[in-house]
Amino acid sequence: MDDPARRIYQPGEVKAAAEPVRSPFAPEKYRALTEGSAAYLYLTEVRKLSAVLLADYSVGETVDGLAYSLAYKWRPANLPANRKPLFEFCKVVKVERPDGKKVEWRDPKGGKNILFGMCSQQVEAVAASGGELVISEGELDAITWAQYGYAAVSVPGGAKYTGWIDVCWEWLQRFKKIHVSFDEDTTGRMKVVEIVTRLGMARTDIIRLPQKPEVAA
User: Helix %, strand %, coil % for the chain, to 5?
Assistant: First the structure.
């Protein structure tokens, strides 16, 4: 008789941990930020962000230097301590904005909708101690908060999408205090209430920023 193959159930996070890690800076597509490129100059001179922090948050650029790439990485609960963080996807943003419109895309498509910045040294240190975390609406906003000394991450997909709460729930549980900092537009104001309620009103509050003028349709 043939011995039937044994099937062992493994949670999704265990399976993900066993998969090869995809590099956010594939040589044929991306590279680390290069001093003097359009992406580097925009981030450091226009947005006034520290090159050290940009590297800590895994910000790179396309090989032509015309767009910056934001690597979404994390450590799932069951990932062995000796393994590198798992890479889910890059959000790529062009520096030039035709007619004032941002040009961005996700590479590769798919991947879990995690928070950006979960593996920065500053965030990991605060996560280990159960300190305070800022959740912002944009990736560069998170790095700006970090530049002022606050451990910060940002949401994927803008204010409307809240699926990251389910994906990152276990990770978020370790923080004793969470501050939500979204844009002061209609969508941002509506979603922060839902987010605060779901994360727990006892430990979550809202940071109010100067309101942006509403743009007529």
Answer: 30, 20, 50
Rounded to whole angstroms, how far apart are CA atoms 154 and 29? Answer: 24
DSSP letter at 130 equals: T
CB 25 within 8 A of CB 32: yes
Over residues 202-215, the pLDDT tens digits come to 999 998 876 655 54
Round the CA-based radius of gyration of the chain to a whole number and report it.
19
Any idea which residue has 């895994």 for tokens?
A: 58
In angstroms, the CA 28 to CA 44 distance is: 24
What is the DSSP pairing of strand 132-136 with strand 177-181?
parallel
If one counts every other C-beta atom within 10 angstroms of the C-beta of residue 138, the result is 17
Cα gap 67→156, rounded to integer Å: 18
CA-to-CA dists, residue 69 to 25, 37, 127, 144, 181, angstroms: 9, 13, 24, 16, 22
Q: How many CB atoms lie under 10 A from the CB of residue 192?
A: 23
pTM of the predicted model as reported, rounded to 2 decimal places: 0.82
- Say if residues 92 and 65 touch (Cβ distance below 8 Å): no
**Per residue in 164-185, pLDDT tens?**
999 999 999 999 999 999 987 7
Domain boundaries, the chain: 30-206
Whether the CA torsion 131, 135, 136, 141 is positive or negative: it is positive
Q: Single out the residue of 93, 113, 98 nearest to residue 154, CA to CA.
A: 113
